[in-house]
Amino acid sequence: MTDPRILKVRPGPEDYAWTFGGAPPVARITPGTVLDLYTEDCFAGRVRSEKDLVSEVCEFPFLNPQTGPFHVEGAEPGDTVAVHFVSVEPARDWAASTTVPLFGALTSTHATATLQSPLPERVWIWQLDRTRRTALFRARDSDLELELPLDPMHGTVGVAPANLEVRSALVPDAHGGNMDTPEMRAGVTCYLGVNVEGALLSLGDGHARQGEGETCGVAVECAMNTVVIVDLLKDVATPWPRLESDTHLISTGSARPLEDAFRISQLDLVRWLVRDYGFSELDAYQFATQAVESPVANVCDTNYTCVAKLRKEWLPGREPYRGLHAQLRETARKLRL
């Protein structure tokens, strides 16, 4: 086995994509390529202090810059691109979080219109200790300081949508996009169904950590140095983004209302069990009902995202996706030697 090709990409401010679809590829890569990437935070690095209000320093809709897209050679509709996260590491010693007027789960929004006034716009700067693996919260209205463990992840991973669509990098859907699930961390393989020739893979929106639901609409947002291995499964369809860790199968669904996102993720998990584990549809439905874990990824984006996850130890000893996750984990291990 030859060593995989490693492509290092450090985009400048003019090099980011702001959509999935509609942007030309920054590079063409062969399956098995290792991408060593820098991704900027969702604010494009413009929120750097408590005085930098999003409404003043950012320009809507230019939020959530994506590194990419990458044209995956040989990828065609009906195939699956696999993205294995080797490492996801904060690129700076600080990160930013905010409240944004008319955005978030506990405030009026444009879609949930009320007479309630918007919440105040405020910025929190979190100090990251990359050696101790902690993120320091400093309260704005008291002297309270609390540490949380780092849990770096990518909020946004996706490919170009189907049917000639161009979607904002703020939107999650069947193509992936801004799913904001904390499951998208190092050691995980993300499977994305290919919709256009070359797939056109992009990622960004790094979070030093994020609670399930991303309630206020903003995580601990930071730039990332991320290494992924990109591979291709021919003639294997993936209708909604799926993840595989060493311990779990994970399906996602993105929609509004929230119960539709829940239904999509649960149905996708049922169909995954049918295809790769030999269940009938009703047996899979019954088994998943009693075994599934159902975190909410986000309840703030243009579409909400739900997750359905199932422990692999409770399933028959079979390898989904032709055992690709285990293969990529082994490649990742060798990269770190």
UniProtKB/TrEMBL annotation:
Cited Pfam families: FmdA_AmdA
Gene Ontology molecular function, alphabetical: hydrolase activity, acting on carbon-nitrogen (but not peptide) bonds, in linear amides
Gene3D superfamilies: Acetamidase/Formamidase-like domains (3.10.28.20)
Entries under InterPro entries matching the protein: FmdA_AmdA
Protein's name according to its UniProt entry: Acetamidase/formamidase
Protein species of origin: Streptomyces collinus (strain DSM 40733 / Tue 365)
